[in-house]
Design brief:
Blueprint (H helix, E strand, L loop, with lengths): L15 H26 L4 H26 L5 H26 L7 H6 L7 H27 L4 H22 L8 H19 L7
């Protein structure tokens, strides 16, 4: 006779309801941060802008790379892929918030319109990609940490990602990558290669099965 009680999963929790719930939570949190960033950036300048907007940015990066993999308890490719799914779901939630609230309130500056040739829609596909990539890489690092030490360390993940993003930014400025400069926008872009580098480094010493 077999038990009808469901088994409790201690890792790789990728059932659809969990992915959807996590995506909604992350998407709403990201929307709050993005809204606050947009409102404050145009009202601040100099060091005040850098300090306040930089803090919002770091909190957003930390949440995006840590929470999905933590919620799915990523330990294998199943949980890692699930974290990317959480990121994609959160991007869809942000799109809904943007088109129903942010754009009607004209939250974005003319610079955003100019980049998109007179439209704000260009950044949604960008965020779908970045919003899936960042949780994916973050969950991979968490899984690598757990494989080596038995536990994942989100703080080390955030510090390592930001440190290698700074290195990537410095390399970009030194070699003359077009548009690279010592500013928050360039640092935001540098997070993407920084994550890739950190994911590779975190894989060293992981025992392959």
């Amino acid at each position: 006779m077999t038990s009808a009680m469901p088994m409790e999963t201690t890792q790789d929790q990728t059932d659809v309801p969990n992915i959807v719930r996590a995506g909604v939570k992350l998407g709403l949190f990201q929307s709050v941060l993005i809204g606050a960033f947009a409102v404050l950036q145009v009202r601040l300048s100099g060091m005040a802008e850098l300090a306040v907007c930089g803090l919002i940015f770091v909190v957003g990066v930390a949440a995006t790379i840590v929470l999905p993999g933590t919620w799915t308890k990523a330990r294998t490719i199943e949980g890692i892929a699930g974290a990317a799914g959480v990121g994609l779901a959160s991007a869809i939630v942000f799109m809904l918030v943007d088109v129903t609230l942010f754009q009607p309130l004209h939250l974005w500056t003319n610079r955003w319109l100019e980049i998109g040739g007179g439209a704000n829609w260009w950044y949604h596909p960008v965020w779908w990609m970045a919003g899936s990539y960042m949780p994916w890489m973050g969950a991979w690092v968490l899984a690598n940490q757990a494989a080596k030490t038995g536990t994942a360390n989100p703080l080390v993940l955030v510090i390592g990602t930001l440190a290698l993003a700074a290195v990537s930014l410095a390399v970009g400025v030194v070699v003359g990558v077009p548009g690279a400069g010592w500013n928050l926008g360039s640092f935001a872009v540098a997070v993407l290669p920084g994550q890739a580098l950190y994911t590779i480094l975190s894989s060293f010493g992981v025992r392959r099965r």
